[in-house]
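Bug #2210: token dump truncated for PrsW family intramembrane metalloprotease?
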Amino acid sequence: MSTALLESRAAALDKTAWGEKFRFVQPRNVVFWIYLWLCGVGAVKGWQMFAPYAGYFGRALLVAGIVAVISVIVWGWWFRHIDRFERQPVGLVVTGFVWGATAATFTIALPGNTALGSLYTKLFGQVWAEDWHAGLTAPLVEETAKGVGIIVLLALAPRLVRTVTDGLLLGAFIGLGFQTSEDFLYSFAGATQGFGAHQTDGLVGSIAQRTFSDIISHPLFTALFCAGVMYLIGSTAQPRRIGRGIALIVAPIVVHGVWDSMIAIAGGSAALTIVIMVGDAIFALTALWIAFVWAHPREAHFVRDVLAPEIESGVLTDDEVTAAGGWRQQRQYVKAGGHRAERRRRRHLVRAAVDLCGDLAASKGADTVDVVTSRGEIARLRSEHPS
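Reproduced locally. Full output below:
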């Protein structure tokens, strides 16, 4: 293989730190102790909030917990699915999730929301505060509480948190942790209505409402916010882009604020509330799509650098490497195959190319057993389904 291509591969793997491990216990890192303290405080506060009700409302807490676990599994699977190239270490993902579920929720957001809501009541009156305090409190306090999480992860794993895509995916897991705790809180609140006389009815209603609202919720908000933070900070793998950073930080705050204030904005009109809800959702999803579009060229560039030597050696074609660099490129490449068998062959080849990229990242470019196996799988696909 060309020396220049191998050097480019090594440089790409060094910049992205794809394949590197995460070590959580860092006694010499002050951020590690701050993390433990804030998450510990959050866990204790959460326990103190629910423990007194565990007896009478035990069934509601159990059902809410089961639903929360199912939600985490479903959303977690999806976020790992879109982590396309070299997935973040599970330990780092769990660290972000725990921050969102404990420190961001119970240590920072709940006291902050309460304090700011009380201030609004004193300054503007009870009626105004009931209409607007959610939309003018939660976006500022909660997005900041969750956004601090990406700074914490950056301090704990500076080599692993480097690109905007890292911010998007880790931010989604931080937001998922926050959403899980918040859903549990709302589900429990629904079960305790009417002094708990109809726990199941109230719980089902709360779960249904939260399941719907979770489509445009904290994982999306935090993914955008943390991507914006990564643009503002910059790294060896990601040039600083202040304009994009500010835009991605402001966007979820605005979306969150409108979402929480849509009834007040609509003046009580059900029809206008639906219009605002749909418009806000479209804006949020569009912002997320733009964030991925902005992040894609850097990721695709690194993928090409990692896989370029495989083109030279004949393992992959240029079109296959291009398709491995993004979902849209993959769809175009697969669609161009024409008949079903060829489209299936192309889809499997692209997946195999992505797997090879991950194995090369884990081995830092060395020809390990996994790398050789991935190359063999690509060769097998070609022999069984010749074009």
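Output looks complete on our side. The longest helix spans residues 270-312. Marking as cannot-reproduce; reopen if the truncation happens again.
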